[in-house]
Protein backbone atom coordinates (compact mmCIF):
# COMPACT_ATOMS: atom_id res chain seq x y z
CA UNK A 1 0.00 0.00 0.00
CA UNK A 2 1.36 3.41 -0.97
CA UNK A 3 2.13 5.64 2.06
CA UNK A 4 -0.36 8.46 2.52
CA UNK A 5 0.51 11.94 3.75
CA UNK A 6 -1.43 15.11 4.26
CA UNK A 7 -1.05 17.76 1.61
CA UNK A 8 1.13 20.64 2.77
CA UNK A 9 -0.98 23.40 4.32
CA UNK A 10 -0.22 26.93 3.20
CA UNK A 11 -1.16 28.11 6.68
CA UNK A 12 1.38 25.78 8.28
CA UNK A 13 4.22 26.23 5.81
CA UNK A 14 3.74 29.88 4.97
CA UNK A 15 5.98 31.28 7.70
CA UNK A 16 8.95 29.12 6.77
CA UNK A 17 8.50 29.66 3.03
CA UNK A 18 8.32 33.42 3.50
CA UNK A 19 11.63 33.41 5.38
CA UNK A 20 13.26 31.21 2.75
CA UNK A 21 12.10 33.58 0.02
CA UNK A 22 13.18 36.59 2.04
CA UNK A 23 16.76 35.32 2.07
CA UNK A 24 16.63 33.66 -1.38
CA UNK A 25 17.37 30.19 -0.04
CA UNK A 26 16.49 26.78 -1.44
CA UNK A 27 15.43 23.67 0.43
CA UNK A 28 15.62 20.05 -0.60
CA UNK A 29 12.17 19.80 1.01
CA UNK A 30 10.64 21.71 -1.90
CA UNK A 31 12.97 20.69 -4.72
CA UNK A 32 12.66 16.96 -4.04
CA UNK A 33 8.91 17.07 -3.28
CA UNK A 34 9.52 15.55 0.17
CA UNK A 35 6.35 13.94 1.63
CA UNK A 36 7.16 15.30 5.10
CA UNK A 37 7.34 18.96 4.13
CA UNK A 38 4.16 19.97 5.97
CA UNK A 39 5.22 18.41 9.28
CA UNK A 40 8.79 19.68 9.12
CA UNK A 41 7.86 23.21 8.05
CA UNK A 42 5.21 23.36 10.77
CA UNK A 43 7.99 22.69 13.30
CA UNK A 44 10.28 25.32 11.79
CA UNK A 45 12.60 22.71 10.32
CA UNK A 46 14.11 22.78 6.85
CA UNK A 47 16.96 21.08 5.06
CA UNK A 48 18.86 23.78 3.23
CA UNK A 49 19.98 23.12 -0.33
CA UNK A 50 23.11 25.17 -0.98
CA UNK A 51 25.06 25.75 -4.20
CA UNK A 52 21.91 26.40 -6.23
CA UNK A 53 19.09 24.10 -7.28
CA UNK A 54 20.48 22.79 -10.57
CA UNK A 55 22.44 19.52 -10.40
CA UNK A 56 25.18 18.34 -12.76
CA UNK A 57 23.98 14.74 -12.48
CA UNK A 58 20.69 13.06 -13.29
CA UNK A 59 19.96 10.32 -10.78
CA UNK A 60 16.91 8.31 -11.79
CA UNK A 61 15.08 8.78 -8.48
CA UNK A 62 15.59 12.52 -8.02
CA UNK A 63 13.28 15.42 -8.88
CA UNK A 64 15.96 18.13 -8.65
CA UNK A 65 16.61 19.87 -11.98
CA UNK A 66 19.65 18.87 -14.05
CA UNK A 67 21.68 21.27 -16.16
CA UNK A 68 24.42 23.88 -16.00
CA UNK A 69 24.40 25.60 -12.59
CA UNK A 70 25.35 29.19 -11.76
CA UNK A 71 28.60 29.86 -9.86
CA UNK A 72 28.35 29.65 -6.04
CA UNK A 73 26.97 32.78 -4.38
CA UNK A 74 29.48 34.07 -1.80
CA UNK A 75 26.63 35.68 0.16
CA UNK A 76 24.89 32.34 0.79
CA UNK A 77 26.58 31.57 4.15
CA UNK A 78 25.39 34.93 5.50
CA UNK A 79 21.87 34.53 4.12
CA UNK A 80 21.73 31.02 5.58
CA UNK A 81 22.76 32.39 8.97
CA UNK A 82 20.03 35.04 8.87
CA UNK A 83 17.35 32.47 8.04
CA UNK A 84 18.47 29.99 10.70
CA UNK A 85 18.55 32.77 13.28
CA UNK A 86 15.10 34.07 12.34
CA UNK A 87 13.62 30.58 12.35
CA UNK A 88 15.19 29.88 15.73
CA UNK A 89 16.54 26.50 14.66
CA UNK A 90 18.60 24.33 16.97
CA UNK A 91 19.32 21.58 14.41
CA UNK A 92 20.24 22.39 10.83
CA UNK A 93 20.80 20.04 7.90
CA UNK A 94 22.83 21.39 4.98
CA UNK A 95 22.90 19.48 1.71
CA UNK A 96 23.56 20.35 -1.92
CA UNK A 97 23.18 19.38 -5.51
CA UNK A 98 26.15 17.70 -7.18
CA UNK A 99 28.55 20.33 -8.50
CA UNK A 100 30.93 18.36 -10.70
CA UNK A 101 31.53 21.60 -12.61
CA UNK A 102 33.52 23.10 -9.72
CA UNK A 103 37.19 22.40 -9.05
CA UNK A 104 36.52 21.33 -5.46
CA UNK A 105 32.97 20.11 -6.18
CA UNK A 106 31.60 22.76 -3.82
CA UNK A 107 33.38 21.51 -0.70
CA UNK A 108 34.83 24.88 0.32
CA UNK A 109 31.37 26.45 0.05
CA UNK A 110 30.01 23.73 2.36
CA UNK A 111 32.72 24.56 4.89
CA UNK A 112 32.04 28.30 4.71
CA UNK A 113 28.33 27.77 5.32
CA UNK A 114 28.91 25.43 8.26
CA UNK A 115 31.65 27.43 9.95
CA UNK A 116 29.79 30.73 9.50
CA UNK A 117 26.76 29.27 11.30
CA UNK A 118 28.74 27.57 14.06
CA UNK A 119 30.78 30.69 14.80
CA UNK A 120 27.66 32.79 15.37
CA UNK A 121 24.93 30.49 16.67
CA UNK A 122 24.58 27.63 19.12
CA UNK A 123 23.24 25.20 16.55
CA UNK A 124 23.82 21.53 15.74
CA UNK A 125 24.79 21.15 12.09
CA UNK A 126 24.56 18.03 9.96
CA UNK A 127 26.06 18.02 6.48
CA UNK A 128 24.58 15.66 3.91
CA UNK A 129 27.12 15.74 1.11
CA UNK A 130 27.52 14.48 -2.43
CA UNK A 131 30.43 12.13 -3.10
CA UNK A 132 32.70 14.95 -4.44
CA UNK A 133 33.86 12.33 -6.97
CA UNK A 134 35.86 10.82 -4.10
CA UNK A 135 38.31 13.73 -4.09
CA UNK A 136 40.23 13.44 -0.82
CA UNK A 137 40.97 17.16 -0.55
CA UNK A 138 37.29 18.01 -0.98
CA UNK A 139 36.25 15.39 1.56
CA UNK A 140 38.81 16.67 4.05
CA UNK A 141 37.57 20.24 3.60
CA UNK A 142 34.05 19.27 4.65
CA UNK A 143 35.02 16.73 7.30
CA UNK A 144 37.36 19.22 8.98
CA UNK A 145 34.64 21.86 9.19
CA UNK A 146 32.73 22.43 12.42
CA UNK A 147 29.90 20.13 11.31
CA UNK A 148 28.61 17.90 14.11
CA UNK A 149 27.57 14.95 11.94
CA UNK A 150 28.79 13.81 8.53
CA UNK A 151 26.31 12.18 6.16
CA UNK A 152 26.38 10.73 2.69
CA UNK A 153 23.58 8.56 1.32
CA UNK A 154 24.32 5.21 -0.28
CA UNK A 155 20.77 5.50 -1.75
CA UNK A 156 20.42 1.94 -3.08
CA UNK A 157 22.08 -1.47 -3.16
CA UNK A 158 25.18 -2.35 -5.18
CA UNK A 159 23.28 -4.34 -7.84
CA UNK A 160 21.03 -1.38 -8.71
CA UNK A 161 23.42 1.47 -8.06
CA UNK A 162 24.66 2.11 -11.60
CA UNK A 163 21.09 1.95 -12.93
CA UNK A 164 19.73 4.38 -10.35
CA UNK A 165 22.77 6.66 -10.17
CA UNK A 166 24.49 6.55 -13.59
CA UNK A 167 27.19 9.03 -12.55
CA UNK A 168 27.54 7.65 -9.05
CA UNK A 169 29.53 4.67 -7.83
CA UNK A 170 28.66 2.33 -4.98
CA UNK A 171 32.26 1.72 -3.91
CA UNK A 172 33.09 5.42 -4.16
CA UNK A 173 30.21 6.20 -1.82
CA UNK A 174 31.50 3.60 0.62
CA UNK A 175 34.94 5.20 0.50
CA UNK A 176 33.41 8.61 1.23
CA UNK A 177 31.76 7.17 4.32
CA UNK A 178 34.96 5.38 5.34
CA UNK A 179 36.88 8.65 5.02
CA UNK A 180 34.31 10.50 7.14
CA UNK A 181 34.51 7.85 9.85
CA UNK A 182 38.16 8.74 10.52
CA UNK A 183 37.25 12.21 11.82
CA UNK A 184 35.71 11.14 15.12
CA UNK A 185 32.24 12.44 14.28
CA UNK A 186 28.99 10.47 13.88
CA UNK A 187 28.60 9.13 10.34
CA UNK A 188 25.19 8.61 8.81
CA UNK A 189 23.76 7.16 5.61
CA UNK A 190 20.38 6.35 4.10
CA UNK A 191 18.89 3.87 1.69
CA UNK A 192 15.62 3.78 -0.24
CA UNK A 193 13.47 0.67 -0.56
CA UNK A 194 11.21 -0.17 -3.46
CA UNK A 195 13.58 0.04 -6.43
CA UNK A 196 13.86 -3.71 -6.98
CA UNK A 197 16.29 -4.74 -4.23
CA UNK A 198 16.12 -8.14 -2.55
CA UNK A 199 16.56 -8.97 1.12
CA UNK A 200 20.03 -10.35 0.37
CA UNK A 201 20.91 -7.09 -1.40
CA UNK A 202 19.93 -5.18 1.73
CA UNK A 203 21.86 -7.44 4.08
CA UNK A 204 25.02 -7.03 1.99
CA UNK A 205 24.52 -3.26 1.98
CA UNK A 206 24.06 -3.14 5.76
CA UNK A 207 27.27 -5.14 6.15
CA UNK A 208 29.14 -2.83 3.77
CA UNK A 209 27.94 0.29 5.61
CA UNK A 210 29.00 -1.03 9.00
CA UNK A 211 32.41 -2.07 7.67
CA UNK A 212 33.16 1.52 6.65
CA UNK A 213 32.06 2.97 9.99
CA UNK A 214 28.47 4.08 9.46
CA UNK A 215 26.74 4.28 12.85
CA UNK A 216 23.41 5.89 11.98
CA UNK A 217 21.12 4.50 9.29
CA UNK A 218 17.87 5.76 7.75
CA UNK A 219 15.68 3.39 5.72
CA UNK A 220 12.74 4.81 3.77
CA UNK A 221 10.34 4.01 0.95
CA UNK A 222 11.12 5.34 -2.53
CA UNK A 223 8.21 7.42 -3.80
CA UNK A 224 8.26 8.35 -7.46
CA UNK A 225 8.31 12.17 -7.70
CA UNK A 226 6.97 12.24 -11.29
CA UNK A 227 6.64 10.07 -14.38
CA UNK A 228 10.18 11.09 -15.39
CA UNK A 229 11.77 9.14 -12.53
CA UNK A 230 12.11 5.40 -11.97
CA UNK A 231 8.82 3.64 -11.19
CA UNK A 232 8.28 2.07 -7.79
CA UNK A 233 8.82 -1.68 -7.96
CA UNK A 234 7.37 -2.36 -4.51
CA UNK A 235 5.62 -0.48 -1.73
CA UNK A 236 6.74 -2.03 1.56
CA UNK A 237 4.28 -2.48 4.41
CA UNK A 238 5.06 -1.00 7.83
CA UNK A 239 5.51 -4.51 9.22
CA UNK A 240 8.16 -5.19 6.58
CA UNK A 241 10.01 -2.04 7.60
CA UNK A 242 10.04 -3.28 11.18
CA UNK A 243 11.45 -6.63 10.07
CA UNK A 244 14.15 -4.96 7.97
CA UNK A 245 15.00 -2.67 10.89
CA UNK A 246 15.53 -5.68 13.13
CA UNK A 247 17.80 -7.24 10.52
CA UNK A 248 19.81 -4.02 10.28
CA UNK A 249 20.18 -3.84 14.07
CA UNK A 250 21.95 -7.17 14.06
CA UNK A 251 24.85 -5.49 12.24
CA UNK A 252 25.50 -3.16 15.16
CA UNK A 253 24.25 0.26 14.04
CA UNK A 254 23.88 2.65 16.97
CA UNK A 255 20.65 4.16 15.68
CA UNK A 256 18.20 3.19 12.94
CA UNK A 257 15.18 5.09 11.67
CA UNK A 258 13.11 2.82 9.41
CA UNK A 259 9.70 3.93 8.19
CA UNK A 260 7.93 4.34 4.83
CA UNK A 261 8.24 8.12 5.11
CA UNK A 262 11.71 8.17 6.64
CA UNK A 263 14.16 10.50 4.92
CA UNK A 264 17.77 11.16 5.93
CA UNK A 265 16.99 14.75 6.94
CA UNK A 266 13.49 14.18 8.34
CA UNK A 267 12.79 16.11 11.53
CA UNK A 268 11.83 12.88 13.32
CA UNK A 269 14.90 11.13 12.03
CA UNK A 270 18.23 10.51 13.67
CA UNK A 271 20.16 13.26 15.42
Automatic annotation (TrEMBL):
It is an enzyme of class 2 (transferase). It holds the Pfam family Radical_SAM. It is found in: Cytoplasm. The keyword Metal-binding applies. Keywords: 4Fe-4S, Cytoplasm, Iron, Iron-sulfur, Metal-binding, S-adenosyl-L-methionine, Transferase. CDD domains: Radical_SAM. Coiled coil: none annotated. [4Fe-4S] cluster 1 binds at residues 29, 34, 40, 265. Belongs to the radical SAM superfamily. Lipoyl synthase family. This is Lipoyl synthase.
Amino acid sequence: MKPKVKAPSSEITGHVINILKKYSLNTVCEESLCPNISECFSMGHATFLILGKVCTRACKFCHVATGRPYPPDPSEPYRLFLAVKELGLEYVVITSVDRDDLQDYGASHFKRCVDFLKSRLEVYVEVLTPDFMGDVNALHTVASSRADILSHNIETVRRLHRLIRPKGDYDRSLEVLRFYSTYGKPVKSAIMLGLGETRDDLLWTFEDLRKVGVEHLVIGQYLRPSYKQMPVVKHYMLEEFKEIEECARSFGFKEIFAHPLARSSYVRGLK
